[in-house]
Amino acid sequence: MIDRLKKLNNSVWVGLGIGLLIPAVFCSIAWYIIHHIAYLAKADLLYIGGIAVNAYAMQIFFKYNKENIGRGILAATFLCAFVFFAYKVM
């Protein structure tokens, strides 16, 4: 696993892709939970948990000196946060 992290190209675009893929997976799990468990039908904040996983991913890439990937993940996190804000307002 660590060898794969070291082989990744240190690019903001790679980080942006990773930063959008991780929340997509976790937010789809949150969507499934929200729509199939009646008790959690109004728990929209589960989506924030899906987005917050990016903070951990960003920490891992900064640890291995992949700053540009971390910056891409940070940009994706802000993008996801704006999408969530628009979802809550509308």
Q: What would the average pLDDT be, to the nearest integer? A: 90
Determine Rg (CA atoms, Å). 15 Å
Strand proportion = under 5%
Low-confidence stretches: none
- Give the total of domains: 1
| Share in helix | over 70%
Q: Give the SSE string.
A: HHHH
**Total strands:** 0
Anisotropy-based shape: elongated
Q: For the record, give the distance between the C-alpha atoms at the N and C termini, rounded to a whole number.
A: 41 Å
Alpha-beta classification: mainly alpha
Count of DSSP H/I helices = 4
Main sheet: strands, sense, barrel: none
Transmembrane segments: 12-33, 45-62, 69-87
Protein name: Stationary phase survival protein SurE
Keywords: Membrane, Transmembrane, Transmembrane helix
Organism: Pedobacter miscanthi
Describe what this molecule looks like in 3D:
This is Stationary phase survival protein SurE. Keywords: Membrane, Transmembrane, Transmembrane helix. The chain is mainly alpha-helical and 90 residues long. Helix 3 packs antiparallel against helix 4. It is 80% helix and 0% strand. The radius of gyration is 15 Å and the shape is elongated. The chain has one domain.
What is this structure's SSE topology?
Blueprint: H1 2-7, H2 12-36, H3 46-63, H4 67-89
Helix pairs in contact: 2-3, 2-4, 3-4
Quick gist of this model?
With 90 residues, this protein is mainly α. The protein contains 4 helices and no strands.
Give the tags.
single chain; 90 residues; mainly alpha; 80% helix; 0% strand; elongated; membrane; Stationary phase survival protein SurE; transmembrane helix; transmembrane
